[in-house]
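Forwarding the complex inputs:
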Amino acid sequence: MTPLIEPIRRSQLMNERLSPGDAMPAIMGKDSDGNEVDLVASLAGRFAFVQLFRGHW
Amino acid sequence: MVDLSVHAGLLQDEGLHVIAASVDSVDDTNDLKSGLRLEFPLFAEIDAVAVARATGAFIEAGERAFMQATGFMLAPDGNVGTAVYATGPIGRITPTEILRALRFARAAASSS
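Prediction (whole assembly, two chains):
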């Protein structure tokens, strides 16, 4: 569970945006069975599109 | 997500592997996947703060932090081809733009 992040300023959280040619960092998440996986590692060797979305809000 | 879900088959037919992720629970994510009849993997419970730090993605801060829509085209070597960041509820890369970026990346790779 992501902890409360106020009063941390939003600018402190957001590093530089990724640019073309940058290595995509690992993103940990859970698959449909609840297993923790590195989303990015699962894409190695192929063209891929990763969409981060807002979900319920 | 609806636009991507409608056009995911077209993208996959072009050989693009599509995935999506949010901070939602595994159960909510599975419900969304079945509700939209998505045929690409959805991942749940990503850490919004950690992902923002690693990728520069914008998040909505507060009691429950969540990601703003962010799209990354990745090359087979794992490097970013292009990235599109939204700062709020509007602004996403479209499937047409994804397809165009894919075709450009393939053409560039084959000519080098």
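Chain A touches chain B through 48 residues (CB under 8 Å).
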